[in-house]
């Protein structure tokens, strides 16, 4: 049964607006549900939604630009809340080697793996990193991404991490997309610190993060809590340093084993804990209590041929918000389609289409701390939305591959390739 959303009250209806968009079913995604408004309308002023409801009830906004669609659906703009889009080179040769039977250990011993990306990233100029990142980001934008988080983490030195973060900030200036920057210097141990992980954590906490904060290069700080990366104690040091600088935290947790990193993230009121294949019921309870979002990354699960699924039923039971993201990265999820992640989230992790769509709209926004401004079609939210010539929201999940035609509206304007 479609649910209409009424404006707050007639006295609060604005007297004018810049544009009105009508002629389609609105998929508002309020409270994580479709909450459909058949034959709806959206009024926009100054890049924000000022009215939303049934088209028949829409006020007569004199002078507003009228946009009329011929059916279809309008969803909130897509939020890709976990990516690693800035890096040097690619690892397609290693991908081919693995499929030909070469082990990851042998590839790493020959200089491959994450350190090959670190070397390529360190050697690349800011301009080269920017060009490569633009190539990867454009396919995401073409299918409706209006907000994206991008992490550093392949520089693993003060100079190279800052270089990556500057490129991430440039992407947000160049393109019509909201870009959130995350410092993931605690991603892996750089080769020059082999056997001295605590010293590298010192460098992050005492040298890198103060510069990141003073130059406003990051919106959050992330870390990788895993046996092959950093221990919970080391992660907590990074979290404490970030919090002292006023930066929120996130965490790669429970991807390959259970270290209860997600519970640690919850203790620090992290925006999100991500991956979570080995999270426990206790982890889910802790995340629910703190409001920490569970970000599921089916692309990495698929490419690594994992068999341990995230505990989705526990997240449901404890009402932990579930987000989905592409995890676009060179090694384990070279994914350039967030819509494909919708299908993978359903087929691999048994999400419903409604849960999957919530994962890249309202819950994806929450994972970035943007729940008050993004992720749903509501009065006061940023006017980021997408028109699709489709019959129902489930079609977004149903179609495999290809690029579905769509009209992307970013801050109240049909999105072009770049800002003027």
TrEMBL record:
Pfam families: Amidohydro_1. Binds 1 zinc or iron ion per subunit. Fe(3+) binds at residues 82, 84, 252, 327. 4-imidazolone-5-propanoate binds at residues 91, 154, 187, 255, 332. Pathway: Amino-acid degradation; L-histidine degradation into L-glutamate; N-formimidoyl-L-glutamate from L-histidine: step 3/3. CDD domains: Imidazolone-5PH. Zn(2+) binds at residues 82, 84, 252, 327. It is found in: Cytoplasm. InterPro entries: Amidohydro-rel (IPR006680), HutI (IPR005920), Metal-dep_hydrolase_composite (IPR011059), Metal_Hydrolase (IPR032466). Its cofactor is Zn(2+); Fe(3+). Residues 73-397 form the Amidohydrolase-related domain. It comes from the Bacteria. N-formimidoyl-L-glutamate binds at residues 154, 329, 331. Catalyzes the hydrolytic cleavage of the carbon-nitrogen bond in imidazolone-5-propanoate to yield N-formimidoyl-L-glutamate. It is the third step in the universal histidine degradation pathway. Belongs to the metallo-dependent hydrolases superfamily. HutI family. This is Imidazolonepropionase. It comes from Hafnia psychrotolerans. The gene is hutI.
């Amino acid at each position: 049964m479609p649910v209409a959303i009424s404006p707050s009250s007639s006295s609060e209806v604005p007297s004018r607006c810049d544009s009105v968009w009508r002629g389609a079913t609105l998929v508002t995604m309020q409270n994580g549900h479709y909450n459909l408004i058949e034959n709806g309308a959206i009024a926009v002023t100054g890049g924000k939604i000022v009215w939303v409801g049934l088209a028949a009830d829409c006020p007569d906004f004199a002078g507003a630009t009228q946009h009329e669609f011929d059916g279809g659906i309008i969803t909130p703009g897509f939020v890709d809340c976990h990516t690693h889009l800035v890096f040097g080179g690619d690892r397609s040769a290693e991908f081919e080697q693995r499929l030909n039977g070469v082990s990851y250990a042998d590839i790493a011993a020959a200089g491959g793996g994450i350190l090959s990306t670190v070397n390529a990233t360190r050697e690349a100029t800011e301009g080269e990193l920017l060009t490569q990142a633009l190539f990867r980001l454009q396919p995401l934008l073409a299918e409706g991404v209006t907000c994206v988080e991008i992490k550093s983490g392949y520089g693993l030195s003060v100079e190279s991490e800052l270089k990556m973060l500057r490129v991430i900030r440039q992407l947000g200036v160049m393109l019509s997309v909201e870009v959130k920057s995350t410092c993931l210097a605690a991603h892996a141990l750089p080769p020059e610190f082999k056997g001295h992980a605590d010293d590298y954590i010192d460098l992050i906490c005492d040298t890198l993060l103060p510069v990141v904060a003073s130059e406003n290069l990051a919106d959050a700080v992330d870390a990788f809590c895993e046996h092959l990366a950093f221990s919970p104690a080391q992660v907590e040091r990074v979290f404490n340093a970030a919090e002292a600088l006023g930066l929120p935290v996130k965490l790669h947790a429970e991807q390959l084993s259970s270290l209860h990193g997600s519970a640690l993230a919850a203790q620090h009121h992290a925006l999100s804990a991500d991956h979570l294949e080995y999270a426990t019921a206790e982890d889910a309870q802790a995340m629910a209590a703190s409001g920490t979002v569970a970000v599921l990354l089916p692309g990495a699960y698929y490419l690594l041929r994992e068999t341990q699924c995230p505990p989705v039923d526990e997240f449901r039971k404890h009402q932990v918000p579930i987000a989905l993201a592409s995890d676009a990265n060179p090694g384990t999820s070279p994914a350039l389609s967030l819509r494909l992640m919708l299908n993978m989230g359903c087929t691999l992790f048994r999400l419903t289409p409604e849960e999957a769509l919530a994962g890249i709209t309202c819950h994806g926004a929450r994972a970035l701390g943007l729940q008050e401004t993004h992720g749903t079609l509501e009065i006061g939210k940023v006017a980021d939305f997408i028109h699709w010539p489709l019959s129902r929201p489930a079609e977004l999940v149903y179609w495999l591959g290809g690029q579905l035609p769509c009209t992307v509206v970013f801050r109240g304007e049909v999105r072009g390739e770049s800002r003027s």
